[in-house]
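Weekly sync, protein design subgroup
Attendees: M.S., D.O., the rotation student, P.L. (late)

Item 1: inverse folding check
M.S. brought a backbone from last month's batch and wanted to see whether the design step gives back something sensible before we order anything. D.O. pointed out we never logged the input encoding, so this time it goes straight into the notes. Structure tokens as presented (245 positions):
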């Protein structure tokens, strides 16, 4: 009985330890899944920020050409507003990629190109009446932004391709973790049920053995009482604390 009780305690302690261990694994797996989801969403955010920045730069180039051709003050104000949008888009992109060394370096290169683009636009806004009389000057200003625009396009394309590769890698990681999660949860459930079932079985076994021993003790006690009555004798018990029988 003592041996069975000890085994039951050991199994119960082991069950609790394994449940905590498996729970820790499940928790870690869920954290990985959550982190993987964040990384996938982060890649989408960077791609969208790149697309938004490029669209704003394209709009700025179009507005610059329109201003050179029309000298409309409304377009001038739109250009200033577009430059603000580009600065905001750049800051958003800068914040998003600061955890990626390669992309962070690309963003800094992109910053130089954008500043160069702004300088070209400012030159167009500062054209004088005399400049407009010179066809060559106007033509140069109309075409001046094309090389920088091409560099900006190439840099954004390069960054977008990097994000596509990252997205593929992170999506694969997410899929693997997603596939493993149900398996881990199912194994956790089976192991937990198995351990608790074993502990319950051992407990019931010990209870049954205890009942049998109690029944034997009760029978022995009744037999002793009957023997005392038949043999006309009794038993004494000595109380050590009170020093009396």
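Designed sequence read out in the meeting:
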């Amino acid at each position: 009985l003592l041996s069975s009780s000890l085994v039951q305690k050991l199994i119960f302690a082991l069950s609790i330890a394994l449940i905590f261990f498996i729970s820790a694994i499940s928790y870690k797996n869920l954290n990985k899944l959550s982190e993987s989801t964040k990384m996938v969403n982060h890649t989408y955010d960077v791609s969208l920020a790149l697309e938004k920045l490029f669209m704003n730069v394209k709009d700025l180039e179009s507005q610059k050409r329109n201003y050179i051709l029309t000298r409309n003050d409304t377009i001038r104000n739109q250009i200033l507003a577009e430059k603000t949008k580009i600065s905001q888009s750049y800051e958003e992109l800068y914040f998003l990629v600061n955890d990626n060394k390669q992309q962070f370096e690309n963003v800094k290169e992109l910053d130089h190109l954008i500043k160069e683009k702004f300088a070209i636009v400012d030159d167009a806004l500062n054209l004088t009446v005399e400049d407009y009389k010179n066809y060559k000057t106007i033509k140069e200003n109309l075409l001046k932004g094309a090389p920088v625009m091409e560099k900006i396009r190439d840099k954004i394309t390069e960054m977008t391709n990097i994000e596509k590769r990252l997205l593929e890698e992170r999506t694969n990681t997410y899929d693997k973790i997603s596939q493993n999660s149900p398996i881990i949860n199912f194994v956790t459930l089976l192991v937990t049920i198995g351990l608790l079932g074993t502990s319950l079985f051992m407990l019931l076994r010990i209870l049954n053995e205890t009942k049998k021993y109690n029944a034997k003790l009760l029978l022995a006690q009744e037999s002793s009482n009957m023997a005392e009555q038949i043999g006309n004798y009794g038993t004494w018990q000595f109380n050590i604390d009170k020093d009396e029988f």
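Discussion: Residues 227 and 233 are 8 Å apart (CA to CA). The radius of gyration is 41 Å.
Action: P.L. to compare against the previous round before Friday.
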